[in-house]
Amino acid sequence: MTETMTTEVAGAANGERAVTDALRIFAGVRNGTMRAVASLTEEQAGFRPNSKEWSVAQILDHLLLTEGLYRTQMSRMVDLARQGRSLNIDVSLSEVDLSLPFIPKALMPLMALPLTMMNMFVPQVLRETVLRFPVMKAKNPKISEPAAAKSISLLREELAAALGQTEACFAGTLPTNASRVTVSHPVFGRNTIANVFGLMAAHEERHGSQINSLLRDPAFPAGGRF
């Protein structure tokens, strides 16, 4: 029994360390995002090279909405761990309606089970790679659709505040079984809290590259160009 308890304690410590490390990586990516937009004017933040591409301000708003979505799910995961209840949260395509370019949107609900089965064999590193690089352009969920226009000064404040809120969720000691709680989605697969932070970091890095491309656009408004 003592050996079992020792193993459980060690497992909990390793799980908490994994979450802490993953959160640190995400925070580093977020800080990079904030540095990239630190000196942008309203005109620069609102620049769009064409009607199909987002402005920097819209990208930042999308990142904030996405972080809020992830934070909500991770908070639910921690709550479940504290209550000792079911160790998996199922998030359906109707809740987070991400669509894939090679599947008609009307058919996405029918693909939930096939996608779930396929994701059982997809390693975490591949999921993060697909999110990090624009190898596949998926349509973002409605819940993370950005506003048409938002003040860059407000967005900068919200980026810092949102990171603080996310860090606050994990400021204390996590429940011993927190590393075993997962959240599942047909497109994103089954992920632990640490895995979710990995997806968040990869997603923000992808849009960080998008921001850098906008800043280098020949038509980007003058003043503070990168």
Describe how the helices and strands are arranged.
Blueprint: H1 2-36, H2 42-45, H3 56-83, E1 88-90, H4 112-119, H5 124-132, H6 152-169, E2 182-185, E3 189-191, H7 193-215
Helix pairs in contact: 1-6, 1-7, 3-6, 3-7, 5-7
Molecular structure report:
This protein has seven helices and three strands. Strand 2 (182-185) and strand 3 form a beta hairpin. The radius of gyration is 19 Å and the shape is globular. The protein has a three-stranded mixed β-sheet. It has helices spanning 2-36, 42-45, 56-83, 112-119, 124-132, 152-169, 193-215, and strands at residues 88-90, 182-185, 189-191. Helix 1 runs antiparallel to helix 6 and helix 1 packs parallel to helix 7. The chain has one domain (2-215): Four Helix Bundle (Hemerythrin (Met), subunit A) (Up-down Bundle). It has 226 residues and is mainly alpha-helical.
